[in-house]
Amino acid sequence: MKKLILTAIVGLAANFATAQNINFGIKGGAVFNTDKGKVWEDAGNIFKKDGKASAGFQAGALARVSLAGIYIQPELLYTQFKNEYNVLDKNDKPQDIGITKKRLDIPVNVGKRFLGIGHVQAGPVFSYYFDDKLSVKDFTTAKQDEFNVGMQIGAGVEVSKLLFDLRYEFGLGKIGSDIANSNGRRFQTENRPQMLNLTVAYLF
User: Fold this and answer.
1) Torsion on CA atoms 8, 11, 12, 14, rounded to nearest 10
2) 69-90, pLDDT tens digit by residue?
3) Residue 21 carries which DSSP code?
4) Which H or E element spans position 12?
5) Quick check: pTM over 0.85?
6) Is 128 exposed, middle or buried (0-12, 13-18, 19+ CB in 10 A)?
7) Which of 27, 31, 77, 192 fits a disulfide with 201 by CB distance 3.0 to 4.6 angstroms?
8) In 3D, which of 66, 67, 143, 152 has the Cα closest to residue 106?
């Protein structure tokens, strides 16, 4: 799967490099994780509670190809956000832990400009989760889901070479992590990614 994604990225880059109306740029901004997620104990699927969501950030590069009144905008972004859960520690006492999700995103949006300053856009986003970082040493990550596909829809304004975007992102599938404390007690988390992304980009 990783080789397939890399091959697709190289193919897209080669096609875009030969396009006539193309601009490259960099972007960054804040992501507001609106999905709290759930956690339960692995033994018997005993439900515990909802989690807590927190903000994060993303940064990366983009290309914009203009075609017959519309544009195609693929991006390569690093995204990081966090969820917090209440689970039992090695002494079976409730403890809050944070799981920081780190992922590589490839959104491919199709957009339309209007009034010379605004734009709307929508498209899929392909995500590869490469790390779940725990904030508590007493716990370890047993395994995690790696791939997910979502959709984005958004709007923005363009001022000279600056692009200001607000997008809503929702996952088409759920992602999860298995965690365990030092006594071997296991817990499972489950999230369906839902985010508001507020970013600014600069086109060269």
Assistant:
1) 160
2) 899 999 999 999 988 888 877 7
3) S
4) helix 2-17
5) no
6) middle
7) 27
8) 152
